[in-house]
Amino acid sequence: KDRAKAPVKKKEDPSAIKEREVPQHPSCLFFQYNTQLGPPYHILVDTNFINFSIKAKLDLVQSMMDCLYAKCIPCITDCVMAEIEKLGQRYRVALRIAKDPRFERLPCTHKGTYADDCLVQRVTQHKCYIVATVDKELKRRIRKIPGVPIMYISRHRYNIERMPDDYGAPRF
Questions:
Q1: Is residue 32 packed enough to be buried (19+ CB in 10 Å), middle (13-18) or exposed (0-12)?
Q2: pLDDT score recorded for residue 15
Q3: What does the UniProt entry say about where the protein is found (predicted)?
Q4: 61: closest CA among 72, 50, 49?
Q5: At 54, is the pLDDT very low, low, confident or very high (cuts 50, 70, 90)?
């Protein structure tokens, strides 16, 4: 066994056609627009988005409606709620805002409580959400998913990126 020759690796031909796996886009994406998005908008809210809204002294639901010019339903997952509860007494205002009856609670069926993974998984499965976050790492992950707009806070107001003109919202 020690004396046996190692198998020789074939050199790849640079002129040969390279095969690669391209993920299929869902049928809800018509050209570049997500047809599942429309008023009333369902907005997945991240923990830091609530905290930054408090720091910027913005009313969450009203500012969302001002940004999108339509009715908005903020949604909060069990993982995000658990993350806010773990932050402790210092973030009790954020917890009170998250428990607002205007927020829709979304139950999580997966294992673990890492909120970023939860939001990315939910948005990948269902393209009907806008993700509200200030976290740069989460924004980078969501930008890779086609057809998912991102809401963020800049200059004490809400902004949205990747939102087409068709839905009545401004394009930035």
A1: exposed
A2: 75
A3: Nucleus, Nucleolus
A4: 72
A5: very high
- Alpha helix (H) residue ranges in the chain: 47-55, 60-68, 78-86, 92-98, 115-125, 136-143
> Span 26-52, mean pLDDT?
83
State in words which class domain 45-161 has: alpha beta
d(CA 107, CA 78): 6
Q: How far apart are CA 127 and CA 28, in angstroms?
A: 8
**Main-chain dihedrals φ then ψ at residue 77, nearest 5 degrees:** -85, 165
For the chain, which residues make up each domain, given as ranges? 45-161
Sorted by sequence, the CB contacts under 8 Å of residue 125 that are 6+ apart come out as: none
Q: Which amino acid, 29?
A: L
CA distance linking residue 118 with residue 46, whole number of Å: 10
- Helix then strand count (H, E) for the chain reads 6, 8
